[in-house]
Design brief:
Layout (H helix, E strand, L loop, with lengths): L2 H8 L8 H18 L5 E5 L7 H5 L4 E6 L5 E2 L13 E7 L8 H11 E12 L16 H10 L2 E9 L2 H18 L5 H22 L2 H5 L4 E8 L5
Parallel strand pairs: 1-2, 1-4, 2-3, 4-5
Antiparallel strand pairs: 5-7, 6-7
Helix pairs in contact: 6-7
Length: 234
């Protein structure tokens, strides 16, 4: 497990290029978890990676199980099938995974299979975000498109939180590019990059504070959704 990656997602620093979005992710996930997480229930993190948000669920008494190709408690095979029984989870978690999946339908059908009827899918994915293959990067969503995709595969979305509007998002994009340029400067590159991050993140913070909700709602960098499994797929 990449403990540094997990730490940074839970506790981002203002010198991180993605601080503007990560500082909002953890509170959004925590707030939704507080609504639906029941002590003793099973939460399966589908595509868990470094499992950064595991403490949020374990602190509430959930049984957390990570599922991935080469990490976690449960194996995912090359076809995308999770080595777990039908209706074996009360919650399926999916954080910044869907944009990297080749076959979205297969992934969402598998999430639906794993859930007990009426179980919850807590999912975050990209609205507007720069290209970042880890190792693949396939798509972005509008709010309407994401909710339609979830509905198509048997999920009724009850909440969709929009994170980071277009003013701050474009600042994040410029910071990411300039930061990498600074790192190439000998001797002082890291110092310059960190100083730039502090300034640009402060600017983005102010931009986000003045962005109206109606603008952010349909033009977000990331969407965090809570959806209920409402019917078995044929």
């Amino acid at each position: 497990m990449d403990t540094e990656s997990a730490r940074r997602r839970l506790h981002p620093r203002m010198i991180d290029t993605d601080w503007l979005i990560l500082r909002q992710m953890q509170p959004a996930i925590d707030r939704i978890a507080a609504q639906v997480a029941a002590k003793g229930s099973i939460a399966l993190d589908f595509g868990c990676g470094s499992q950064p948000y595991r403490p949020i669920f374990e602190s509430r008494g959930l049984i957390y199980r990570g599922a991935d190709f080469d990490s976690g408690d449960v194996r995912v095979d090359e076809s995308g099938r999770v080595d777990a029984a039908d209706s074996s989870a009360d919650m399926v978690l999916s954080f910044q995974v869907l944009e990297h999946v080749r076959d979205v339908g297969r992934y969402l059908q598998e999430a639906h299979r794993l859930l007990r009827n009426g179980g919850w899918l807590l999912l975050s994915t990209h609205g507007t975000w720069l290209y970042h293959p880890h190792p693949e990067d396939h798509r972005r969503w509008t709010r309407q498109g994401l909710l339609a995709e979830l509905s198509r595969f048997g999920f009724e979305t009850t909440e969709c939180i929009s994170l980071l509007g277009p003013l701050a998002w474009t600042t994040l994009l410029r910071l990411t590019c300039a930061y990498q340029f600074c790192l190439r400067i000998p001797w002082v590159g890291r110092v310059l990059a960190n100083a730039l991050a502090l300034v640009m993140n402060a600017r983005g913070y102010l931009e986000e504070s003045i962005t109206p909700d109606w603008v952010r709602r349909d033009n977000a960098c990331v969407y965090v959704t809570l959806s209920r499994a409402v019917g078995r797929q044929s």
